[in-house]
Amino acid sequence: MRALCVDRRGWLSEAQFERAIAATNLLPGPASTQLAIYCAWRLRGGAGALVGGACFIVPGLVAILALSVLFLSGSPPDWVQGAGLGAGAAIAPVAVRVGGEVALPIWRRAAGRAVRLRIGAYALAGAAAAAVAGPWLVLVLLACGAFELVWRGLIRDAGAALFQWPLLAAATTSGDLGALAWTAFKVGALAFGGGFVIVPLMEADAVGHHHWMTHAQFLNAVALGQVTPGPLTHTVGAVGYAVGGLGAGLLAALIAFAPSFCFILIGARRFERMLHDERILAFLAGAAPATAGAILGAAIPLTRALSEDWQYALLGAAAVALLLLRRSVVTTLLLAGAAGALLAVLGSPLPR
User: Fold this and answer.
1) 325 in any annotated domain
2) Quick check: is 352 in a domain?
3) CA angle 128, 129, 134 (to 5 degrees)
């Protein structure tokens, strides 16, 4: 994107592009999508933002919905099921790698023992929430950000606002489509600090609470979100497909990506102020470490979701490739999927 917008076309200066990256990293939701929308907004205003954002989102969304029809159908062929199980087995090491990449810069920037103790506490809270209390993960992330605001004396009492979140969740989860809308909204508007944090958010709702998908199907969906172009947020389209077919998949994607357009169309002119807003920076100082912990903690339920012995062998191989050899995530997932398909063809056991 930098090569296109700065080097080749000259739509933004280097300084403008760097500030746009910094500002979109402060926003919840998919930063890459917001950056694309912002670049289009700078070039052609609101209409440009809508067209540019749609062009960034639609190809990957079409791809993941098409693959969902194949991988999430009621009785896929054995080789398709094996490919999904193989790629799904590699997702937990992906979570560990992504979580480490988010956590290390935060830890290195921390100055002083007291700051690092708070960062560690926020990360542990996020990891615990992702591992055992998935439906409440958003509340934990918000609470960590609010606690940092209180610690720095920037607000006096965040408890009343936080108390309303469970009420809002309860009010918006009547029926499958209402619950899907709430899940998609959390993915698009409340996920701070990195795309992979949406995995425990979605898993808790799609598998644990509403039972729209099996663990194996959810791992398939996350793998599809990794290997298709665009942000991991596209995975919500696969979850929507599992709930109610293509229409529900499109609805989930629309709700998940709508906040990104709103943030840019309403707030892009205020980006410069955001970069120096003491309250925003303090909130993220608490929420970002919790997010890193949540991504790492997500590896626990993702590993528990494996059902066949041969999947653990693929998980170990993927861990070596991703964490020790530092191979590409997409290549590793494709190879794991190919290995799973081959094992299924050769007669390895599959869940029925």
Assistant:
1) yes
2) no
3) 135
Q: Is residue 77 part of a domain?
A: yes
Cα(34)–Cα(271) distance, integer angstroms: 12
Q: What is the DSSP secondary-structure string of 247-296?
A: HHHHHHHHHHHHHHHHHHHHHGGGHHHHTT-HHHHHHHHHHHHHHHHHHH
pLDDT tens-place string over residues 263-319: 999 988 887 787 788 988 899 899 989 999 999 999 999 999 999 999 999 999 999
Single-letter amino acid, residue 251:
L
What pLDDT score does 91 carry?
95
Mean pLDDT, residues 197-220 taken together: 89
Model confidence over 24-49: pLDDT tens digits? 888 888 888 999 999 999 888 999 99
Domain range for 59: 2-345
Nearest to 106 by CA among 303, 233, 300, 295: 295
Give the span between the Cα atoms of 214 and 183, in whole angstroms: 17
Number of domains the chain contains = 1
What's the pLDDT score for residue 94?
95
The first and second tokens of residue 268, run together, are 């892009």
Q: How far apart are CA 64 and CA 226, in angstroms?
A: 10
Tokens of 197: 């944090």
**Looking at the domain assignment, is residue 75 inside a domain?**
yes
Q: Residue 298 corresponds to which tokens in the numbers above?
A: 């997500």
Determine the Cα–Cα distance for residues 79 and 191; give it in Å rounded to an integer: 34
Quick one: tokens of 224?
A: 């599809």
CA–CA dist 164, 347 (Å, integer): 52
Global pTM? 0.85
The torsion of the CA quartet 310, 314, 319, 321, rounded to 10 degrees, works out to 150
C-beta separation of 159 from 148 below 8 A: no
